[in-house]
Write a structure and sequence with these properties.
It is built from seven helices and four strands; from the N terminus they run βαβαβααααβα. By secondary structure, the protein is an alpha/beta fold. The chain has a four-stranded parallel sheet with strand order 1-4-2-3. The protein is globular and about 50 Å long. InterPro entries: DUF488-N3a.
Length: 144
Amino acid sequence: MARGTIADTYVAAIQHDLADLPADATRVGVVRRPTPWFHAAVDENQPELGPPVDLLESMRDAAEAMKMQGLCEEGAHNAAWDQVGFGDAYREYLETDDDARAALAALADRLAAGETLALVCFENTATKRCHRTILKAVLAESDR
């Protein structure tokens, strides 16, 4: 069977019919703490693939401090990402947390079986950095 494809988008794009996703894509939320309205926009959610709570909190705290210094929302978010080493910390989490590893392996198996997946969270990556781009890259690397 042919390998499936992987796409990604953010929830507001789905809600406002702006997401350009394959018609057969299973929309997989990758949010640690989803809201009820988030669940309505996805087919399933894999919270173990959301960033760990401590990483999310350190990111939020750093971004808030930067906004207090005058940075805009997007600028503070992206600067906080770098300050807390978000990308490296999230990759390490994916490699070392048993639940995350199991969820990642399950998605890789689904892709290998030919399923089309679309990773979904809150951030519009046109303006803000997001863990789902790292997750998408890790899944692509698992195919090599």
